[in-house]
Write a structure and sequence with these properties.
The chain contains 18 helices and 27 strands. It is α/β, with parallel strands linked by helices and 550 residues long. It folds into three domains: 179 residues, Alpha-D-Glucose-1,6-Bisphosphate, subunit A, domain 3 (Alpha-D-Glucose-1,6-Bisphosphate, Chain A, domain 3), CATH 3.40.120.10; 220 residues, Alpha-D-Glucose-1,6-Bisphosphate, Chain A, domain 3, CATH 3.40.120; 134 residues, TATA-Binding Protein (2-Layer Sandwich), CATH 3.30.310. The strands form six sheets. The chain has a seven-stranded mixed β-sheet, sandwiched between helices. β22 and β23 form a beta hairpin. Bound molecules: 1-O-phosphono-alpha-D-glucopyranose (G1P) and zinc ion.
Length: 550
């Protein structure tokens, strides 16, 4: 085993603090070029190491989604962690570690937290984006208050500590040292696979796949490739080639690693046009998002959450029932109806996974999700793409029906929440702000007005009181709620790096005896037109249609 090395930290002085390191919905996300700027990454890591509790003598988990900048960042973090007296860093071969797998490692190793290098579903490469996500000791994204403390620290920061000239290669697993700090390089896939085997009945899923149930999984050249190959091809008996684009690439092969119908066209065509497979799925850059497709059938993520909750008893780990469920505010109320039937609580939280953390820790919920292709449970503290795919397969292995039959059965039992999200991306920030602000100003006067042939029951800017720590989070999205509970919501994205993204969320409930098989864009047409004329989105932005429709 390599020896402890004698290395003294050096202090590097900054000419002035960076003032643009405010983390958004999920960590600090900027262009790769920005992160390459001298001392930029170092500044944010220094602020993190000064702010996190228990750094000196603690264990940290570090890894990323393999994008351009990943290895350089891990090298810097290791040398800075050693300079700050961290006792051990667990990282992975080639630095490959999905977000849910990182969350699991933090929990399993009683780490003080983790640093995950990813800009999630944003494109990577030299001209793409990079990001740093800080996770706390429960395995979940840093709370608002931790994030704010790190940000305040960056604004005053004048120097950082690092150990020079002690780069460690991540090619092979093993134990290494920088100064007195131990570095354990492990295979980032093993522990995660073990966790999945503890949750699901793999034999049953294997039987399904054996019976000519064909699956296609698209890793979009990002982090889930090695995980998915191990799961589907090695352990569940799916043929070689089931996992497409399965080798993580620094630039994700030039694609936008976001599993939706726009950015995963290859998979969408296979399932929706040529109808060549029984089941299709894709995950995003860092493996926390998922898209589920059946033969000729797209599963809206809000419906997916409801279906997982309704069928949870099929999965061994949830067979004793659920504590409760939660969804982010813009996610459709499909899961609410399921919760009501199950007689369990359903919480409505702001957008962003961090808001589920307290509810999961306090055992108030077991399953939660967001409309943005994110679902997860109390097995980790992040959303988990492959977990959702296995969950679907477990349900189908039990029900032995097609994805579209399962959807139809669900709607005929619970009714259908027609749902769509329209994203207008890269709008000049000023224009996006003006659309948003002028709607916000009009909100108080909207109650009682007519909208798409109904009265507006109420209109507000969503705020949330955390039921566990009573903290209050305000201004989380403009809601217009109609008499029949149809909703239109407007939000500005907190994860983009170019201009601003305006998201318009549309929802309408139809009872189980109503029209259940319409095209969502038609079922929501009047809401779509009405919000456009009220907020003048197309007129003010010059867009003729949304960039992405889900
Ligand atoms: C988006 C999603 C949100 C998700 C986040 C991180 O944030 O809308 O649900 O938690 O990415 O994956 P937004 O860009 O809307 O702020
Ligand atoms: Zn992600």
């Amino acid at each position: 085993m390599p020896e402890k090395s004698e290395s003294n930290p050096v202090t590097v002085h900054l000419s002035q603090p960076f003032t643009d390191q405010k983390p958004g919905t999920s960590g600090l996300r900027k262009s790769s070029k920005q992160f390459q700027e001298k001392n930029y990454l170092e500044s944010f890591i220094e602020a993190t190491l000064r702010t996190l509790q228990g750094v000196s003598g603690g264990t940290l988990i570090v890894g990323g989604d393999g994008r351009y900048g990943n290895l350089r960042a891990i090298d810097i973090i290791l040398r800075m962690a050693a300079a700050h007296g961290v006792s051990k860093v667990i990282t992975t071969t080639n630095g490959i570690l999905s977000t849910p797998a990182a969350s699991n490692l933090i929990r399993r190793n009683n780490a003080i937290g983790g640093i995950i290098l990813s800009a999630s579903h944003n494109p990577g490469g030299e001209n793409g984006d990079f990001g740093v996500k800080i996770n706390a000791d429960n395995g979940g994204p840093a709370s608002e208050s931790l994030t704010n403390s790190i940000y305040s620290c960056t604004k005053k920061l004048m120097n950082y500590k690092i150990i020079e000239n002690s780069t460690i290669s991540l090619d092979k697993s093993g134990t290494y040292y920088i100064g007195a700090m131990i570095i354990e390089i492990i295979d980032g896939v093993d522990d995660y696979i073990q966790l999945m085997q503890d949750i699901f009945d793999f034999d049953r899923i294997r039987d399904l796949i054996k019976d000519e149930f064909s699956i296609a999984f698209d890793a979009l050249n990002a982090v889930t490739g090695p995980y998915a190959k191990r799961l589907f091809e090695d352990l569940l008996g799916a043929p070689n080639g089931t996992v497409r684009n399965g080798i993580p690439k620094e630039d994700f092969g030039g694609c936008h690693p976001d599993p939706n119908l726009t950015y995963a066209p290859e998979l969408s065509n296979l399932l929706l046009k040529s109808k060549s497979f029984s089941f299709g799925a894709a995950c995003d850059g860092d493996g926390d998002r998922n898209m589920i497709l059946g033969k000729g059938c797209f599963v809206n993520p809000s419906d997916s959450l409801a279906i997982l909750a309704a069928n949870a008893s099929i999965v061994p780990a949830y067979s004793d029932g659920l504590f409760g469920v939660a969804r982010s505010m813009p996610t459709s109320a499909a899961v609410d109806v399921v919760a009501q039937k199950l007689g369990i609580d359903c919480f409505e939280t702001p957008t962003g996974w961090k808001y589920f953390g307290n509810l999961l820790d306090a055992k108030r919920i077991t399953i939660c999700g967001e409309e943005s292709f994110g679902t997860g449970s109390n097995h980790v503290r992040e959303k988990d793409g492959l977990w959702a795919v296995l969950f679907w397969l477990q349900i189908l292995a039990q029900k032995r029906c097609s994805v579209s039959d399962l959807m139809r059965q669900h709607w005929s039992e619970y009714g259908r929440h027609y749902y769509s999200r329209h994203d207008y991306e890269e709008i000049p920030t000023q224009i996006a702000n003006s659309v948003y602000r002028s709607m916000e100003d009009r909100l108080p006067k909207l109650s009682g007005e007519s909208f798409a042939g109904q009265q507006i029951r109420f209109a507000d800017n969503f705020s949330y009181k955390d039921p566990i720590d009573n903290s209050i989070t305000q201004s989380q999205g403009l809601r217009i709620v109609l008499e029949d509970n149809s909703r239109v919501i407007l939000r500005l994205s907190g994860t983009g790096t170019k201009g601003a993204t305006l998201r318009v969320y549309l929802e309408r409930f139809v009872h189980s005896n109503g029209k259940l098989n319409q095209d969502p864009q038609l079922a929501l047409e009047d809401l779509i037109n009405e919000i456009d004329s009220l907020a003048q989105i197309k007129l003010k932005t010059g867009f003729t249609k949304p960039t992405v429709i889900t």
